[in-house]
From TrEMBL:
This is tRNA threonylcarbamoyladenosine biosynthesis protein TsaB. It holds the Pfam family TsaD. Residues 30-175 form the Gcp-like domain. Belongs to the KAE1 / TsaD family. TsaB subfamily. NCBIfam families: T6A_YeaZ.
Length: 233
């Protein structure tokens, strides 16, 4: 695949931007929980200048659609929409949970990843993903927001070893110790635009884009979590 895509994400404590130009990726990333609005646009300018391209030359603009911080997700989508409107670019929303799965593969070659972001209110944003031969990811559990104790109680054992990703594992370590499937500790805590831009390539190739005004977040708070767990569909 050869495309020019800009991606940005502010859904968690991490603020990141990545630019894909003809298979080369230019990245900026910084954990800055309260400075997303100050950091993200300068990062965009830096990667565009480094690559020597203008915003209007791109094929699409990708963004982390959530789940994550309510404010952070809104900031990211709002800034991405503004950029897309100005340059008349289509937009691609990418799951922050799936992006962490891709980050775990990029760093460690993990092909089965269990993602849990601390959602506060004694809950986690949850999703498990298995990597496919073409480089895409297939969801094993539907994304949901769920109390970790309920997640553990309703989990089932399988043959896979799942690499953990996200802040939820440390935040609710005691509750998640009851998980029935096998896990190994991972070090990917946040989604990163570098992985969002990688995943966005597949969506662009499939034509899965939206106009800027139709870009929407994924909050999951209105999801009935226990109905989404294995065996509860």
């Amino acid at each position: 695949m050869s495309a020019k895509i800009l991606a940005l994400d502010t859904a968690t404590e991490n603020c990141s931007v990545a630019l894909l130009v003809d298979d080369k990726v230019y990245v900026r990333s910084e954990v800055a929980p309260r400075d997303h609005t100050k950091k993200v646009l300068p990062m965009v300018d830096e990667v565009l200048k480094e690559a020597g391209v203008a915003l209007a030359e791109l094929d699409a603009l990708a963004y982390g659609r959530g789940p994550g911080s309510f404010t952070g997700v809104r900031i990211g989508i709002g800034i991405a929409q503004g950029l897309a409107f100005g340059a008349d670019l289509p937009m691609i929303g990418v799951s922050t949970l799936e992006a962490m799965a891709q980050g775990s593969y990029r760093k460690h070659g993990a092909e089965h990843v269990a993602c849990a972001i601390d959602a506060r209110m004694s809950e986690v944003y949850w999703g498990r993903f298995a990597r496919q031969e073409d480089g895409t990811w297939s969801p094993v559990d539907a994304e949901c927001v769920v109390p970790p104790s309920v997640l553990a109680e309703n989990s089932t054992a399988d043959e896979q070893l799942w690499r953990t990703a996200g802040t939820g594992w440390a935040a609710y370590q005691n509750d998640l110790e009851g998980i029935q499937f096998k896990t190994e500790e991972g070090d990917v805590l946040f989604p990163d635009a570098e992985d969002i831009v990688y995943l966005a390539q597949f969506e662009l190739a499939k034509g899965n884009t939206v106009e800027a005004e139709a870009a929407s977040p994924t909050y999951l708070r209105d999801t009935v979590a226990w109905k989404k767990l294995p065996g509860r569909e």
